[in-house]
Amino acid sequence: RVFSITRVFASGCMALPVLMNIKQVIEQRQCSGVWTHKDELPIEIDLGKKCWYHSVFACPILRQQTSESNPPMKLICGHVISRDALNKLTNAGKLKCPYCPMEQNPSHAKQIYF
């Protein structure tokens, strides 16, 4: 898909009030360390299905593009890997996330849709 300038502008208009509100809350509570990453928001902002653009996801473990037969799976810790990677990393019914120390049951992973 191609981003239209109108849709980008409309998305910004929808997100700005939420961002201004969270900024005010962070400043009032004096917890400035919450929002430290320039490329990451401390909250999720729902902009509706019209703004879902990430149609391609490459698994960071297997370095392969996901597909319908090998969809992206969100682990309990929030990291996302492909189903094939999840199956390869599962050992004796347990899965240790390759990015953090969290050990989890692979059946708790949820398929996500980009």
UniProtKB/TrEMBL annotation:
GO terms for biological process: proteasome-mediated ubiquitin-dependent protein catabolic process. A zinc finger (RING-Gid-type) spans 59-100. Pfam families: zf-RING_UBOX (PF13445). The keyword Zinc-finger applies. Keywords: Cytoplasm, Metal-binding, Zinc, Zinc-finger. GO terms for cellular component: cytoplasm; GID complex; nucleus. It is found in: Cytoplasm. Residues 59-100 form the RING-Gid-type domain. GO terms for molecular function: ubiquitin protein ligase activity; zinc ion binding. Its main location: cytoplasm. The keyword Cytoplasm applies. PANTHER family: E3 UBIQUITIN-PROTEIN TRANSFERASE RMND5B, MACROPHAGE ERYTHROBLAST ATTACHER-RELATED. This is Required for meiotic nuclear division 5 homolog B.
